Amino acid sequence: MQVAVELGVQPNGAPVPMDLEELLATRLLVQGNSGSGKSHLLRRLLEQSAEWVQQVVIDPEGDFVTLSERYGHVVVDADRDEEELEEIARRIRQHRVSVVLNLEGLDAEGQMRAAGTFLNGLFEAERDHWYPVLVVVDEAQLFAPAAAGDVSDEARKLSLGAMANLMSRGRKRGLAGVIATQRLAKLAKNVAAEASNFLMGRTFLDIDMARAADLLGMDRRGAESFRDLPRGSFVALGPALSRRPLNVKIGGVETSARSTSPKLIPLAEARDNIADVIFAPVTHERPARASARPTATADLLRQLAEARPVEVVAPQPDEPEIDHAARAAGIEAVLAAVLETPEASFRPVAVLYQDFVMRCRIQKIPGAVMDLAEFRRQIAVARAGVTVEAAAGTDWDAAVALSAQLTEDLQGMFLVLARAAMEKAPCPGDLQLARTCGSRSPGRARRLLAYVEEKGLIAVRTDRRGNRVVALPDLDWETAPGRPDAPDEGDALNQAAE
Q: Given a cut of 50, is residue 291 above it in pLDDT?
């Protein structure tokens, strides 16, 4: 099943789709001068593909952090040590969370070090966690410069090596690079050359126009056309876009950057005493200038230890006793309400978690709210649809324990199969299994089913009529035969509710 997102429209109004699966295999390069609409294009791509693929955004200006409000991206502030950044990157791949690495506030060398370390952490993740990830790098010329700049050689080599790995070797690890740059001439050629899809926007310098035309296979006259492109329009080419150069006007977006383009604002009316206001005497004392030489870390820790006051533990008021049975029932009701919302099966877990937390606050559920990892497990169990009464006297708890061997996105599929096997119901079809993984692709469901079978948790066979039977050897359960191409009744009910 082909998964395509609508990037924009042609001059004649025809839509321009982008094949996501092809993009994951062939990578993308975006080029355009400042103000050409590169960030808008990247935001459009990220928003349209958020429900289909995990995303990692390398954001030097903090413009994409607003994706967290609408699509549940986790914002990772880059002001951390290298070991911590690498570990966070590995956890991101393990738990398949979409994130924005916010580099705002770091100097050029700090941004290069943080981005290089983070990308290397993604690249060096364990093989079992090589799921598809769309890695979007804005202002890529900062991290893969064509020439040495004012930063140290160590930082430049770290960042450039990570970018080269992303674009050349990342595909086998599930990493699909999408890089955007203001000037192709400033971007390292070995990084740009690995992309097979191109979106070229407005540019004015001859060297950049010539290089863009060369990448698109255009002549000199075609290169001149890049000067005339309006803002938000790009020339598209590549296997995920079009086999021939195609003009595309990028569509609208639902989120916006924190920074905006400059707009003319009328000046305030002139005041007669404005000079007196500006040059009025400064009444407060100026802060003392900081020492040019910072205090050594060891000296600072010693000073803090010597000046530490005696801690006085204040008596804590007794917390009201929590009715755990009522709390569990309330959480179960909130989980059911979250799953009943339209399109809940296809929304990112982070978005569902935000909805869950808000509903818990509205319902005034006592006690601390469960964390995201526990929420993923609870959602997987809730999607299986096994009530406490139905699970009584069975090995359902053992099935839940077995599911813990899988990643969170596969636990729901396993538990749905376990429920069908426990009840000796027909084996769920590909569409139903895909929905439990947040997808509409039956091909993806079959691939994940084969992966779970490789783990030894299930055994799949097909009878003479083409029906599928799934057995759980550890529990001695087996589903009844079921058609793999059976319609997804749950999705049909969701559409009817909408």
A: no
Residue range 409-429, pLDDT digits in tens: 688 888 889 989 998 999 999
Residue after which a domain boundary falls, among 228, 250, 272: 250
Helix, strand, coil percentages in the chain from 3-state DSSP, rounded to 5: 45, 15, 40
Q: What is the pLDDT of residue 259?
A: 60
- Domain total for the chain? 2
Residue 461 Cα distances to 109, 133, 411, 477, angstroms: 56, 31, 21, 14
Q: Are 396 and 422 in contact (CB under 8 A)?
A: yes
Determine the average pLDDT of the residues in 94-123.
92
Q: Which range of residues forms the domain containing residue 233?
A: 4-250
Contact 191, 219 (CB under 8 A): no
Which CATH number is 89's domain given?
A: 3.40.50.300
Residue 287 inside a domain? The answer is no
Average pLDDT of the residues in 164-176: 90
Eight-class DSSP state of 128: G
Give the Cα separation of 412 and 334 in Å (integer): 18
Sequence-ordered list of residues with C-beta below 8 angstroms from that of 290, at least 6 positions apart, any chain: none
For CA atoms 267, 268, 274, 280, the dihedral sign is negative
Closest alpha carbon to 122 in 153, 101, 152 = 101
E strand or H helix at 165: helix 153-168
Does any domain span residue 267? no
Higher pLDDT, 389 or 126: 126
Clarify whether residues 345 and 491 are in a common domain. yes
Is the Cα dihedral 183, 184, 189, 192 positive or negative?
positive
Note whether residue 336 is domain-resident.
yes
DSSP string, 187-214: B-HHHHTT--EEEE-----HHHHHHHHH
More confident residue, 221 or 123: 123
